[in-house]
Design a protein that fits this description.
Helix content: 55-70%
Number of strands: 8
Number of domains: 4
Shape: elongated
């Protein structure tokens, strides 16, 4: 009833036990009908003789919910259904309650332990069978003055979700909550987004009353009563939150490539990693290099690579984890490059050349620097060095003066 809602016969093809209940109770009594182009549960068909038999059930639930400004528990609804003159039996009450909710979900909010639930799942449905006091419905009705805001918001949410969102407080709230609930845990906690985005995120994720959130909380938080401006702000801030995690991943991708001194085709990096795989003598670094050897440069493979740095998936990071991961990533990449320079000791061709610079300046302080460059860049660097030497010779400098010039240049480069 949940997973195959909208399909003919709810997707049933055989005659399983649950299919038998559907055929005998729901289909036989025309409670599931073709509504336009889509199949849906119907509780408002008073023209159908079979469906009309259930009108007292639906009227009793409508009366309870529409006369109350608060949530109405399933216990209260079941009590009304079991009382005369209806006298419904206990066994079918959960089924009737589900039919009623699915038929009226645009106007009914679902609450479990007084917390708004945006989407009904099998896990939540199990609550109906365990404790009806914990499960409640609330009727939400919109006034005419709110319709234009909901139309604007539903249009914006439809574009974000890629599916139609009905212009009702509940559907709009469900759409917003679904967007925010699907954000990575890091995005739900980070303080790197704007303050308005943080306020919007808190209001949506802690929503207990969708009507209050849409028509009271959000206008106050975003400091505007103009409907167009309000929807534009919600849309802009939502996009900021949706892009926050991809931006974090892109940042770490760039940091990784920079720390590894990688440019050009991905295949060259994979070859470098493959060439030193399993040679570090450190399990974590070996794992890092092994991941790099099959790196696909997509989000999933980068998450796997970054998970090794602090033993935690980036989606579950907090802001301090990101800082710690940068430090660890720098260590791993530095080890990667160092291992490459030592490949010649293993009788392998090295993909990088290492250098050491030591200089004692006039103030008697020692300056030293170890560094490495890709072997493939050496021919280009040799040509450049010849050009520089030629220019210095033309100026009449001796060998010692040339060496001193290079030493001074290196010192300034290191300290810059």
């Amino acid at each position: 009833m949940i997973n195959r809602l909208g399909e003919s016969l709810l997707g049933y093809e055989g005659f399983s036990s649950d299919a038998g209940i559907f055929y005998s109770v729901i289909q036989h009594n025309n409670l599931y009908q073709l509504n336009g182009e889509e199949w849906a549960f119907i509780t408002s068909d008073t023209g159908d003789l079979l469906a009309k038999q259930f009108k007292p059930l639906w009227d009793a639930a409508d009366s309870l919910l529409k006369s109350s400004k608060d949530q109405v528990t399933l216990t209260e609804i079941y009590k009304a259904w079991k009382a005369p003159p209806i006298g419904a039996r206990n066994g079918l009450l959960p089924l009737f309650a589900l039919v009623y909710f699915l038929a009226n979900r645009h106007q009914l909010g679902l609450y479990i332990e007084k917390t708004f639930i945006p989407d009904l799942t099998e896990a939540y449905l199990d609550e109906w069978m365990q404790d009806t006091n914990r499960v409640a419905f609330k009727y939400v009705e919109i006034g005419k003055k709110r319709e234009s805001l909901l139309r604007l918001l539903s249009s914006s949410l439809s574009r974000s979700l890629g599916k139609t969102v009905t212009a009702s407080p509940l559907e709009s709230a469900r759409g917003l909550v679904n967007i925010f609930a699907s954000l990575p845990n890091w995005t739900k906690r980070t303080s790197t987004v704007s303050l308005d985005s943080q306020k919007l995120r808190t209001a949506i994720l802690r929503a207990s009353d969708p009507h209050k959130v849409l028509f009271s909380d959000l206008p106050n938080i975003l400091e505007t009563d103009d409907e167009i401006i309000l929807v534009e702000k919600i849309s802009t801030l939502t996009k900021e939150l949706q892009s926050a995690y991809p931006n974090l991943i892109d940042k770490f991708r760039n940091l990784t490539f920079k720390a590894l001194d990688h440019q050009g085709e991905l295949s060259s990096l994979l070859k470098r990693a493959e060439n030193i795989k399993g040679l570090s003598g450190d399990f974590l670094i070996d794992a890092f290099i092994a991941r790099l050897s099959v790196f696909k440069n997509d989000q999933e493979s980068l998450e796997g690579l970054l998970s090794i740095t602090i033993n935690k998936n980036p989606k579950d990071w907090v802001d301090r984890d990101a800082d710690a991961a940068i430090n660890k990533l720098g260590e791993f990449c530095s080890s990667f490059r160092k291992i490459e320079t030592l490949n010649n000791l293993r009788g392998k061709e090295s993909s990088r050349q290492s250098f050491a610079f030591i200089y004692s300046d006039p103030k008697n302080s020692m300056v030293s620097k170890n560094f490495d460059v890709a072997s493939e860049k050496l021919p280009e660097l040799k040509l450049l060095s010849k050009e520089l030497l030629l220019e210095l010779y033309k100026k009449g400098l001796t060998k010692d003066e040339i060496l001193a010039t290079f030493a001074q240049a290196c010192n300034e480069t290191i300290n810059s």
